[in-house]
Amino acid sequence: MDVLDAVNRRMSVRAFKTDPVDGSLLRELLEAAARAPSGGNLQPWRVQAITGGPLAALRATMLQRVASPDTPQYDVYPANLWEPLRSRRFQVGEDMYGALGIPREDKLARLQWFASNGQSFGAPVVLFFSVDRRCGPPQWSDLGMYMQTLMLLAVERGLDTCAQEFWSHYHQVVHDHVGLPDSHMLFSGMALGYRDEGAAVNSWRSRRDSFEAWGEMRGFE
What we know:
This protein has helices at about 5-10, 25-35, 50-65, 85-100, 105-115, 135-155, 170-180, and strands at about 45-50, 125-130, 160-165, 185-195.
């Protein structure tokens, strides 16, 4: 598999098999992803991975806590989203719930599906990514590049992922379960495992605008 194949296969998988992920393979991927770009070579990322008993304990807590999120430490989305960002976010939600067969008026089913975020969609591994609170946007960008590198490496090895900023709303829960340092801000979680190919929620792909909507090229023949 080449890089373009990995980019095209990668998607936010929201249904996983229960098959475990070998710890040595996961460590190999985590270490390899550290070759991601890092301004000034600061390597500001901190990564914590859990599986087995620790993950089961976290999921048990989330069954009780999912309706009571923590006070956010940052905004996942800007307030009052403008176009075309607003329409893109709306469309991805409609496409996902359409694949699940959950109509907009079925609020209970949508809330139940939202709660499945706290169960990491059944993934056998969950990773948490944080950054020192003293860091700024450039270091957050470094962390994002680390995560993207990891996701592509995972695809190359037959694994799949779903980045979950959802966990930023439960940062205290994560802190209690994985020992997140007080000096670090939780940015995102990530579900990791083997894709359930038969799950309806994995049967669709989010849309992308054409190059003309967001790109320019000048001075080329």
